[in-house]
What does this fold into?
Amino acid sequence: MKYRINYIAGLTLIEIMIGIVITTIMMAAVYTSYSVVNQSYSQVSDKAKISRASRDIVTMLMRDVRMAGFKYYAGSHEIAQYASRTQECYNGSGIALPKNSYLYFDNGFDNPLESHNALVIRKNTLGFGIVSDTTTSLSTNNTNVTGSTVDTGSNCCDQIQIVYEDFNQNDFRDGEQPYKKYRITYYALPNGSGGFAAYKRVEHYSQPRNGCDLFEQATPPPEQNDGGNDPLGAGNLFNLENQFGLGRDPNAGGIVGSGVGDDSTDVNSITRGLWLTNCNECTPGVMVRNYIDDMEFIPFDKDGKVIQDSSGRFPAPEHVGIRDRLQDIRGVDIRLTWVSKEDFYRDAATTDKPRTILGLGGTDRNSLIADGKDKKLRDSVIVTVHTRNIGETF
It folds into this structure.
């Protein structure tokens, strides 16, 4: 019995140390593999989040751009329905609903903030004003826009305004307006973290009718159409908005049934409305996406050429030399660039190894990430959207 006990083998200290070293090496290899996989997963997940958020806002933008300039033409059914619901007017015959919108049109030449143009793009403009502005008031009346300039140290971002019309035959009571006009503005503001956030503002043109009066605008005689160059003349009423009433002589001027003529004094007496955000579907300015690096919009014409003047400005009511091309826009190139909230790369970009985000409008719109201060991921989404309702043939 003693003999057998003397020959029982055990682990020596050296063997235990060797086992510990091998186990440590294996655990280190497993941890390294896990860290690499986890980092790769986080990067893919971050890119997926950016891509998913990008698709949401791009889809929203595409839908609104395609609606730019849309006008609702009332058919025989809507006209009959409206007359039946307004039989208290005109000795029981009801209101003769015009086939086209009767809403007042303002080209914005005197006050760009009141523009009704179908699509306006302003470069490097923060806020929903007409110049870059970080002190914008989000009140219900955009005439409160201050329009002060600000140096953000960045070329972000462009602003785009979209106007289209709609119709609701259920709004037939006194003080209601069956024809609707909406203005949607996409713009950016600083987000407080050194970057920017995208906002969407939805307004409606409030011009309720008065009692049984529905003024039907008619197209002016050819010699009176001045193309909108006279801000107080007939062009201010009729430019881009030639509107016809039922059975109306197309050569007649003025406004049906109102006694309003074509001279500037009578035109100014037309009931005007206001852009407000007090409708159910309106918003004074809602953030739709945080952490954007740039929003770029470029309008082009039917030949695919960019519409801009010698200074690179796009058509807008305040740009006298090129505003007459507002109706030539046939599509918009859109680039949205997002930036990750957290650091993405292990090393920051340097002057020797910079990261460049290419813009659509030339080298002045490129974003160069260098100087060793940034480790964030940037990813761009680029789409082309064709307008359907803008142009002289519409």
Observations:
- Residues 136-153, 216-269 have pLDDT under 50 and may be disordered.
- Helices lie at 2-6, 13-67, 76-85, 234-238, 264-268.
- The longest helix spans residues 13-67.
